[in-house]
Amino acid sequence: MPDDATTGGPEGRNPRQAEERNPRQSGGRKPRLRFPKAARLIRTAEFARVRTEGRPVHGKMITLGVLKGASDADGRVGIVTSKRVGGAVVRNLVRRRLREVFRAMRPRLIPGVWLVVVAKSSAAKATFAMLAEECSQLAQRGRILRADVKDVAP
Question: What is the pLDDT of residues 106-142, one digit of tens each?
Fold first, then answer.
């Protein structure tokens, strides 16, 4: 019979992992940043509205479509990675990186802004840091960040 040290206790879990998973019980940690489905643009009509009513901000690796005042709620983000970016694995990697960048940036977005992030083929060769830097620069050029909220590190 295995001892409790290898199984993680009588419940079969490592108690330290269970403690890390529950942020409410962690003392002075930062609150978790989430990117729920309600914060994403999903419908084709929403993407089309940003394209027709919004304005683009172009960068080397991504194009950011910005529509201010779309709703009273928090900002929403949609990510587009076409086959020009690469195969399915590369597209998913770029999409995950961009989603993480905007998940961390979400508390700083002005209320009611809708963003469509279109990855260019050069985004496939970019590192996470390069994508984060370009997204930050485009957000400043598009004037979509609140001045009163400090930067939240991922």
Answer: 888 888 899 999 999 999 999 999 999 999 999 999 9
* Residues in the chain with pLDDT values less than 70: 1-33, 72, 149-154
pTM: 0.72
Identify whether residues 95 and 116 lie together within a single domain.
yes
138 vs 127: CA distance, rounded Å: 17
DSSP one-letter code for 128: H
Could you tell me if 26 and 42 lie in one domain?
A: no
Q: Cβ distance 104 to 112 under 8 Å?
A: no
51 shares its domain with 127: yes
Tell me the CA distances in angstroms from 29 to 20, 24, 26, 55, 103, one per residue in order. 10, 9, 6, 38, 18
Per-residue DSSP letter, 6: H
Check whether residue 77 and residue 133 sit in a common domain: yes
Residue 35: the pLDDT is 75
Of 107, 100, 125, 30, the residue nearest 117 (C-alpha): 100
Q: Where are the alpha helices (DSSP H) in the chain?
A: 4-7, 15-21, 44-53, 88-105, 128-141
